[in-house]
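Deviations from the work plan: none for this task. Representative record:
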Amino acid sequence: MKISLNKKILDKNEECALQNSEFFADNDIVCLNVISSPGSGKTTILSQTIRDLTGEIKIAVIEGDIRTDTDAQKIRATGACAVQIETKGSCHLSAQQVTGALTTIPAADMDIIFIENVGNLVCPSDFALGENLRVVVLSVPEGDDKPIKYPGTFAKADVILINKMDLIDYIDFSLERVIADIKVVNDKAEIFQLSATTSVGMESWYNWLRSKINN
Amino acid sequence: MHETIVAQSVFESILELTNEHDALAIEATISCGQFNPINDEVLNFAFDIIAKGTPCEGMKLNIKHIPLSACCKQCGKRFDYDVYKPGCPDCNSMEFDFKKDAPLLLEDIELEPIESN
C-alpha cells in the first residue's frame, strides 16, 4: 500500500516558526535571526547597534549559546532586555525555544527583536525561527572563502555584514572575491562592510534597519 | 543538515502510519535540495538505529537529491547547478538566476499490512 504524503520533514519546527512569525506580525515587531561562526562579532555588533539606537528604536535580544549567559549579560550592560537560551549541546536554536524565550521578555513592546543564534555557519540555516529577516555575519579574520564553503547559509541571507573591516589591511582577505561568491548564490542580499568596534560603516546598517521598521 | 533530527522526524511520521494501518513499513522516499542536502549514509545510519525493534526496522529509505535549475545571465544556458563545480557549463560565468531550491520532504511511504490470524 503506497501512501503519498509530501510532508515537510522539519514540520514541527515549521509550525512553531509560523506561530512566532504571527506573534511578530500581530505586534509590529521586526525579528532578525543573526547567524555566523563563533567569534565573528555578533554580540559586539548588536551591543553597538543598541547603544547607538537607544531612544530611537526599542530592541530586545534572544541569545543562543551552548553554555553560559555571557552574551545576554553583555547585551543587558547596554540597558536593553535580553534572555539567554542555553542549548546544552544543540548547535542551533529551534523555533520552540524562541517561543518560550518570547514569554520571558516584554516582547510585544519592542520594535526589533534580534535572535543571536548559536555560533555555527551550518545548522542554524536549516531551522526557521519565525524571523522576518536573516542576518549573516562574516568577519575579515575568518577568511574570504566562507561564502563558497557554506552556500546554504549565504543563499538564505537577507543581509550580510562583513565585520572587522578595521583589520582588512593586516589579513589576506579579498572583498572582491567574497562579494562575487555571495552573488553567485544570492544576488538579493544587502552587503554592508563595517566594524562594530570602530563604528565605521555602522550607519548604513542602521539605515537598513530603520527602513525595515518603516515597512 | 541534521540527519539525526531528520531521521527521528521521518521515523515518527512513518510510525504513526504503521500504527494507523496496522502495517509494517517497507520503504519511503525522501527528497532534498542542493544547498542543504542530506548525507545519505549518515541518514541511513541514524535511521537504522532509531528504527530497530519497531515496525520500521529493515525498511528502505530512497533519498532523492532534486537538481537546482539555474539560468546563466550571460549566455542564457539553462542547466542543473552543481554546488561543487559552480559556473555555467557553456561560458563559465558565475551569474545565475536560480529557481527555488527543493525543500526537505517525506514524499511517500509503502506499507505492508500485518496479516492477522
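The longest strand of chain B covers residues 23-32.
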